[in-house]
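Hi R.,

Here's the chain you asked about this morning:
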Amino acid sequence: MSISDNLQAIRHRIEQAARACGRDPAGITLLAVSKTKPDADIIAAHAAGQRAFGENYVQEGCDKAQRLEAAGLELEWHFIGPIQSNKTRPVAGCFDWVHSIDREKIAARLSEQRDPHRPPLNICLQVNVSGEESKSGVAPAELPALADAVAALPRLVLRGLMAIPEPTDDVTLQRSRFAHVRQLMDDLNARGHHLDTLSMGMSQDLEAAIAEGATIVRVGTALFGARA
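And the predicted structure, written out as tokens:
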């Protein structure tokens, strides 16, 4: 199947999942995870109507963004991978969103390095709801302090939370993890934040994520195929 066909199939999945839980599909953004994929795949997805793309690797993502902007494509770029301190400047310069903030230090550097003439950088805090030591993300107990610190930084807008729970085919566990993320966002909003974004759900579990309130689902494999 072509990328256009795959995109249509994913949109149908999103629509079906939204309808099943009484949500408006228009409230859910498909983020095409284009890491390791060539420009031609992104151009094909763009031709089929896709606008938001997610990258995990700083240099690769910046190079793509610059090349495709020069080619006349207006795309929205989301950084979804871990960020080292020495890579914050290019992230601040190339991306519209960052989903993977779990330390105040990284957010502060992005704030300092974001061009004040550009729109603020949209930020999601990555939370580790499955407690895996190998996985990035702030512990839920430490989330309120991090949210307060990031929300106070200039040139950033704290939009919501991102999570990558452990992979499982157990739909009950999938929904439990995603419900936990939603509850954490509700708790932050009750503390005075104004968060509107839940970045959660991927190719294998987007239905469970949508049922629990996801506003951005991150899909790579089902759209572009397995990584080479």
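The domain at 3-224 is CATH 3.20.20.10 (TIM Barrel).

Let me know if you need anything else.
M.
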